[in-house]
């Protein structure tokens, strides 16, 4: 992937003196460009905001936000806290329309999905599905924003299997869920930056018990990866203050589809029985 330094070096000779000043600042302060608003950056550089806008256009970007996104991709959005991202939204979005926010969110989600499709190891995906299908039991754990997605994964799994459960629900201890785990079992850990301590501990406990540990996360720096038997690094870029789970959701639903296909007639029969009971006892609105 081309860096902002590469882009600038390719255009530097054609820049005016003032734009070269701005370009030099960008190269020397890539983290500040990625983590601060245009107003803040222009103040630090002693240059007008319009200078950085003109620089971005001279470098072939459609606007300043595109140039800043390249810097973000280079350093990783983990460098920014949620509050810093929220500040960017407030400062940049004062005059933005709802459509602008929507288009940026959709664009980021599509880029995440495209990157997932390009980068995922298909052979590993098959191997993971096979291992989960063969497991005696599958435990799921997620903390903070990942909690709901593990609940969703557990909800889908219970349609076709009775050996999946979510660990640590309603404040329950991890130890109670991990007791009795062995090499026949599998544990799925979902955690995104900032990483939850309980997620790292859960991965360690499962690995120590000999279980197969699948870690789904957003960066190779995630501490839980040290305990993983397999892992998926899922892109989470978002213009919002939080990380996007769009690509993670696609991965989860893909795994469920692969597992149902492997379970065959038994999965079909169980799903049919669940639906029948939902209708019989009025859980579905008919």
Question: What's a quick, concise take on this entry?
Answer:
By secondary structure, the protein is an alpha/beta fold.
Detailed description of the structure:
Helices cover 58% and strands 8% of the residues. By secondary structure, it is of the alpha/beta class. It folds into two domains: 4-95, Orthogonal Bundle (Arc Repressor Mutant, subunit A), CATH 1.10.10; 118-280, Rossmann fold, CATH 3.40.50. The chain has a five-stranded parallel sheet, sandwiched between helices. α10 links the parallel β1 (138-142) and β2 (164-166). The chain is elongated.
Give the helix level as a range of percent: 55-70%
Please state roughly what percent of the residues sit in beta strands, choosing from under 5%, 5-15%, 15-25%, 25-35%, 35-45% or over 45%. Answer: 5-15%
Order of strands across the main sheet: 2-1-3-4-5
Average pLDDT number: 86
Domain HTH rpiR-type: 2-78
InterPro entries: Homeodomain-like_sf, HTH_RpiR, RpiR-like, SIS_dom, SIS_dom_sf, WH-like_DNA-bd_sf
Protein name: Transcriptional regulator, RpiR family
GO molecular function: carbohydrate derivative binding; DNA binding; DNA-binding transcription factor activity
Question: What's the topology here?
Answer:
Blueprint: H1 4-11, H2 17-28, H3 30-35, H4 38-45, H5 49-58, H6 64-75, H7 82-92, H8 98-119, H9 122-134, E1 138-142, H10 147-160, E2 164-166, H11 174-178, E3 186-190, H12 197-208, E4 212-217, E5 230-233, H13 246-263, H14 265-280
Parallel strand pairs: 1-2, 1-3, 3-4, 4-5
Helix pairs in contact: 2-5, 9-13, 10-13
């Amino acid at each position: 992937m081309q860096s902002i330094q590469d882009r600038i070096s390719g255009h530097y000779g054609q820049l005016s003196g003032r734009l070269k000043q701005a370009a030099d600042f960008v190269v020397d302060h890539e983290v500040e460009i990625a983590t601060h608003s245009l107003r803040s950056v222009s103040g630090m550089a002693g240059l007008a905001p319009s200078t950085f806008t003109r620089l971005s256009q001279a470098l072939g970007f459609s606007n300043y936000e595109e140039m800043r996104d390249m810097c973000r991709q280079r350093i990783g959005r983990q460098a920014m806290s949620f509050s810093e991202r929220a500040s960017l939204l407030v400062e940049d979005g004062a005059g933005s329309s709802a459509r602008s926010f929507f288009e940026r969110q959709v664009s980021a989600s599509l880029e995440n999905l495209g990157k997932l499709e390009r980068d995922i190891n298909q052979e590993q995906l098959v191997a993971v599905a096979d291992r989960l299908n063969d497991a005696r039991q599958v435990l799921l754990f997620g903390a903070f924003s990942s909690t709901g997605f593990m609940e969703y994964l557990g909800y889908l799994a219970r349609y076709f299997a009775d050996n999946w459960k979510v660990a640590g629900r309603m404040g329950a201890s991890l130890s109670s869920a991990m007791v009795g785990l062995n090499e026949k079992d599998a544990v799925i850990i979902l955690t995104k930056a900032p990483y939850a301590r309980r997620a790292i501990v859960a991965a360690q406990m499962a690995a120590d018990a000999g279980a197969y540990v699948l870690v789904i996360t957003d960066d190779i720096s995630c501490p839980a990866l040290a305990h993983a038997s397999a892992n998926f690094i899922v892109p989470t870029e978002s213009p919002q203050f939080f990380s996007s789970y769009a690509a993670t959701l696609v991965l989860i639903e893909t795994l469920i589809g692969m597992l149902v296909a492997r379970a065959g007639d038994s999965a079909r029969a169980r799903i049919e029985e669940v639906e029948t009971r939902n209708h019989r006892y009025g859980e579905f609105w008919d």
